[in-house]
Design brief:
Helices cover 37% and strands 10% of the residues. The protein has 366 residues and is an alpha/beta fold. The chain has 3 domains: 14-70; 84-137; 154-191 and 209-345, Ribonuclease H-like superfamily/Ribonuclease H (Nucleotidyltransferase, domain 5, 2-Layer Sandwich), CATH 3.30.420.10.
Amino acid sequence: MRDVAYSEEMKRDGRTLDHRTLEEIRRMAVERVREGEDPTTVIASYGFYRTTIYRWLRAASGRGKGLRALASRKATGRPRALTAAQERQVFRWINGKDPRQYGFDFALWTRKIVAELIEREFGVRLGVTAVGQLLAQLGLTPQKPLQRAYQRDPEAIAQWQRETYPRLAKDAKARGAEIYFWDESGFRADGVQGQTWGVQGHTPVVAVPGRRQSISAASAVNARGAFWFVTYQGALNAPQFIDFLKRLMKRRKKPLTLILDSLPAHKGPLVRSYVDSLQGKLQLHYLPGYAPELNPDELVWNHMKRSEETAPQGRPDAGAHRGRSAGDSTQSQTRAVIFPRSFCSLYYRLLSNRASCEGVSPCALR
């Protein structure tokens, strides 16, 4: 018989122990009682309540069970609200689709909408917390979606990537021409781009000009990092576009294939007349509608608006409050753009030679 000091105030919560440890305690306690020790003393030595030992003894005395009845078993827990097949169906509902396809008025998935759809289709009511846990188990996370115009023609986009562009690249190589992509963008002096640092809970304040200023810019870029740009006021029209093309073509020795979107200013009769006058030295080819992701020149403006290197003060009007115009600031920041060769070649393996940049900005390569 073992002498054990025991205090009524010292009690152990078995839930804090792992299953293997609890199983071993149960086995040792029952064996000690079977060897003749007092049940109360035995259970006290382990720090459990007195009644616990009697449950263990009853379980071990069952016919054909013995000490096996004391083995740990996996807890069943609350049964799943949805079957595995129903959970897979929930994943198919959400992945690549939006709630409007199931009769809802909202285009973004929320836990409440998912819960309503589950109740409508399966007759199972789940709370938003349970829905969130289910979506996490299915590998779905809340994300800011990319926007795509519903007027897009996926077949035309696929054909351009699969057939049109490879044909243009092959033709350009045969003619010894360079391929550039063209795009325009706009900037406002009162638009704060990017982020800054500040004390948590205290939103930083950025000073902006009292009067609204805006500036437009256009650029052309190729796969090897050659970069040309110009700034201008207002919306682009055909005469302006022709003037920019003349600057782009100035002192250019090789033919140029220019790929751009279908803005009306890019396609008017004045533009066609100018292009024809160059007798093949300049060719314009147009991207499918509503497909900005096909134009790597879009990356130039995204890079400029978001990069700390080119916009150290967070907006294109940096310096405007010191007497400089938004146009001056935009030009100085655009000249700082370092456009790596890999930017475009990740999108297309352009077959062009290393080009020099004419016009407003020198070539920025690395």
